[in-house]
């Protein structure tokens, strides 16, 4: 393509993007803003006419606490505080953490029957991976590479949480994370925008269902808008300084997918982006979210993130913070009370237009309408006992946990455990932990609900297999005095299951780590137990990728089981004993060491791509560049062979598409699922392009000896990117594609996008 043509092409694509980005139109025709309902708009107009400024700002105020004592002894209880008074005065429009049908009905009654305009409350809570039935942490669920499972768990969570009076969940968290030191990598879908977008859509659909007014739905909240996962050094709340191209090409896609899926709310982020805090950034909150994506829901701040504009050094005081946040596009203030206490004066001083306040109130009232709260604000207390932790939900938790676990190594078919094994040693500080499988952000999950690994293994092994158990050491701290007894327990068994990793409090918010190796004396325990030489499976219980170089080299088998929820033990046993084959694939790579981070497969080539024997290429002198285990990697109890890669054409126009098909054969003797992955590389671009990008995946179950033909459709439109001027460009040129079992291997083909 001549430079002139390329410029022309850019210009055309740019004009298209500009036109689409203008006004209510959207960047892509498939963004479907929810159409305004004239009757609702009229009702909102009437309320805005009648409301005082204080009452309007009350609708933009969310207060924490008000949690019934039976849910959290010592928490603020509205029935014994002034919170009911504030509700009756119309000074608060939303609570977070208020739980329980009876209790929330009391709060709601004060709003609907006693406040000036009878506007119902919207009640939110962090329903991140289950409400009472706790599923695998979101990162683990993403390892299933089966968005339908994520939709199912979100649906179940909504059924349970709504039965306890909730209307809104602060989920899905869709932050792209490429630095496993960041504790919140546990809450998202890992390192890749394509996989992240697929799970964002699934979770929004699961929480919101087909009709938000149905009583068993929650309005979802895509968070944290935006780029929170790019915190420097993986340190939580730290500075984010990235190019706007990276913002658009890496961090925004899952949010746009959530908006396209109809998410009702977003949450603004704590972090700054290139000097402007995410909670006061007009470019993201208004230009992108409203103008380009035509988002019609509302934005809530993160906890105190309005007030924290002062700590950022971006606002002089709380009034300044309130002004900057609402003008940027944050509609509701979570817990700072800066809107309630300072917006009225700012409006009276002319610093904020009343129209801006009205716009925010309108957005909030629209969602309250879409939830049906004006018509039916109360919760039937009879629902919760029927749905919380019911057998169907527990069965789903077991299936999803099973699908999330990733087999990283299985030398000599160590797994599954063979029928002739008559004694099993279950060793490790997490082997019988009931708390830790719940993971971070576990809602109303309870340790008593959890099936521990030891319990699950005992139940599956049956009475004719002797099960012995030893702690070996603590997760952290402690001493090594229990290692020798654990070694003796291993010596006395036919098979050893060694369960090590992170306790639930080692990942999640405010839990970044600089050391991703096995905490405490666990590595010493691993070394000592492996030295016994028995068939051994190391099972990780973890909230993030970990650095396990010794274990990777010396353990015969490794299964990543994550913090996999209440059915941890049964799901683990299902796989260890071979009742099901592992089918998970890594949603984020496992680094060899912390020094490699941030580390991700979709990296740029650089001008000096690694050449094994050339020291003057991009490399370390003390570590390979490659991860210990790559993105998309996972084994199973059979083998698959990829063949006959075919393209319907090796060329397509910028508005064209090609079909890609491949045969995948199960060449082993056990049925299993394979996640077939499609990666693409744009060889030359007006910006440097990643060496690989995930552009499709399909999880297929294949019986032994059978061949499955897997088809993908590649649209040129999806191979574009946000270029130098942040326009979306689809550039003609040469491309490569790979289809394979992970990001590091596959069969290759070439194609091009023509003029
Ligand atoms: C927290 C988190 C956010 C959560 C909110 C409410 O600080 O950053 O993800 O939804 O506060 O609990």
Number of helices: 22
Can you list the ligands bound to this structure? alpha-D-glucopyranose
Strand content: 15-25%
Gyration radius over CA:
27 Å
What order do the strands of the largest sheet run in, or round the barrel if closed?
Answer: 11-16-15-14-12-13
Overall helicity: 25-40%
Distance between the termini: 7 Å
Structural class: alpha/beta
Mean pLDDT: 94
User: Would you report the number of β strands?
Assistant: 26
Low-confidence stretches: 1-31
Major sheet description: 6 strands, mixed
Inertia-based shape? globular
Question: What would you note in describing this structure?
Answer:
The chain has 755 residues and is an alpha/beta fold. The chain has a 6-stranded mixed β-sheet, sandwiched between helices. A 5-stranded parallel β-sheet has the order 4-3-2-1-10. Strand 14 (495-501), helix 20 and strand 15 form a beta-alpha-beta unit. Helix 17 packs across helix 22 and helix 18 (453-461) packs across helix 22 (568-576). The longest helix is centred in the N-terminal third of the chain and has 19 residues, at 3-21. It is globular and about 75 Å long. 56% of the residues are buried. Mean pLDDT is 94; it is low at 1-31. It binds alpha-D-glucopyranose (GLC). Alpha-D-glucopyranose binds next to loops. Alpha-D-glucopyranose is lined by residues 96, 126, 170, 223, 302-303, 509.
């Amino acid at each position: 393509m001549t430079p002139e043509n390329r410029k022309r092409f850019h210009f055309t694509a740019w004009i298209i993007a500009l036109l689409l980005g203008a006004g209510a139109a959207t960047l892509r025709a498939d963004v479907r803003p929810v159409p305004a309902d004239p009757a609702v708009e009229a009702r909102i107009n009437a309320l805005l006419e009648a409301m005082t400024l204080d009452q309007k700002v009350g609708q933009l105020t969310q207060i924490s606490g008000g949690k019934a004592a039976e849910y959290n002894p010592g928490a603020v209880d509205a029935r014994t505080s002034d919170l009911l008074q504030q509700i009756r005065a119309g000074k608060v429009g939303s609570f977070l953490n208020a739980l329980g049908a009876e209790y929330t009905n009391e709060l709601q009654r004060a709003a609907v029957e006693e406040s000036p305009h009878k506007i119902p409350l919207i009640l939110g809570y962090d329903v991140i991976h289950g409400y009472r039935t706790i599923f695998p942490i979101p990162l683990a669920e993403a390892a299933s590479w089966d968005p339908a499972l994520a939709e199912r768990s979100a649906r179940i969570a909504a059924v349970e949480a709504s039965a306890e009076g909730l209307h809104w969940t602060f989920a899905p968290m869709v932050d792209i994370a490429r630095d496993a030191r960041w504790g919140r990598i546990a809450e998202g879908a890992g390192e890749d925008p394509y996989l992240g977008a697929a799970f964002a859509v699934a979770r929004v659909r699961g929480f919101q269902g087909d009709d938000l007014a149905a009583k068993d739905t929650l309005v979802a909240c895509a968070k944290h808008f935006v780029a929170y996962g790019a915190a420097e050094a993986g340190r939580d709340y730290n500075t984010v300084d990235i190019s706007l191209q990276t913002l658009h090409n890496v961090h925004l896609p899952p949010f746009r997918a959530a908006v396209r899926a109809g998410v009702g709310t977003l949450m603004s982020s704590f972090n700054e982006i290139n000097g402007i805090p995410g909670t006061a950034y007009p470019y993201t909150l208004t230009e992108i979210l409203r103008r380009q994506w035509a988002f019609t829901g509302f934005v809530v701040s993160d906890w105190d993130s309005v007030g924290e504009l002062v700590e950022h050094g971006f606002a002089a005081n709380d009034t300044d913070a309130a002004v900057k946040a609402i003008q940027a596009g944050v509609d509701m203030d979570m817990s700072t009370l800066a809107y309630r206490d300072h917006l009225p004066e700012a409006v009276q001083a002319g610093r904020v237009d009343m129209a801006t306040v009205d716009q925010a109130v309108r957005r909030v009232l629209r969602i309250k309408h879409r939830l049906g709260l004006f018509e039916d604000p109360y919760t039937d207390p009879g629902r919760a006992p029927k749905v919380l932790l019911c057998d169907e939900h527990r069965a789903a938790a077991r299936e999803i946990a099973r699908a999330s676990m990733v087999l990283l190594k299985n030398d000599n078919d160590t797994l599954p455990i063979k029928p002739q094994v008559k004694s099993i040693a279950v060793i490790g500080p997490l082997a019988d932990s009931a708390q830790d499988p719940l993971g971070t952000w576990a809602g109303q999950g309870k340790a008593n609900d959890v099936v521990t690994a030891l319990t699950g293994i005992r139940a599956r092994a049956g009475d004719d297999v002797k099960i012995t158990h030893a702690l070996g050491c603590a997760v952290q701290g402690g001493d090594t005095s229990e290692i020798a007894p654990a070694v003796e327990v291993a010596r006395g068994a036919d098979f050893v299951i060694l369960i090590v990793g992170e306790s639930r409090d080692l990942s999640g918010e405010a839990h970044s780590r600089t050391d991703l190796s096995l905490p405490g004396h666990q590595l010493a325990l691993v070394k000592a137990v492996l030295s016994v030489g028995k068939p051994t499976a190391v099972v990780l219980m973890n909230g993030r990728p970990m650095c396990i170089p010794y274990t990777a080299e010396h353990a015969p088998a490794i299964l990543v089981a994550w913090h996999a929820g209440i059915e941890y033990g049964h799901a683990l046993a299902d796989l260890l004993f071979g009742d099901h084959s592992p089918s998970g694939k890594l949603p984020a790579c496992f680094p060899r060491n912390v020094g490699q981070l941030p580390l991700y497969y979709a990296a740029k080539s650089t001008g000096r791509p690694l050449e094994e024997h050339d020291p003057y290429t991009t490399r370390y002198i003390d570590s390979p560049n490659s991860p210990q285990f790559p993105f998309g990697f996972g084994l199973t109890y059979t083998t698959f062979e990829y063949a006959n890669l075919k393209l319907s054409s090796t060329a397509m126009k910028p508005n064209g598409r090609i079909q890609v098909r491949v045969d995948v054969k199960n060449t082993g003797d056990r049925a299993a699922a394979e996640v077939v992955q499609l990666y693409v590389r744009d060889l030359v671009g007006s910006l440097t392009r990643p060496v690989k990008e995930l552009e499709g995946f399909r999880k297929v179950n294949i019986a032994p000896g059978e061949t499955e033909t897997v088809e993908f459709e590649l649209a040129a439109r999806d191979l574009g990117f946000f270029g130098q001027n942040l326009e979306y460009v689809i550039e003609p040129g040469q491309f490569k594609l790979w289809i394979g079992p992970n990001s590091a291997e596959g069969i290759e083909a070439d194609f091009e996008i023509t003029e």
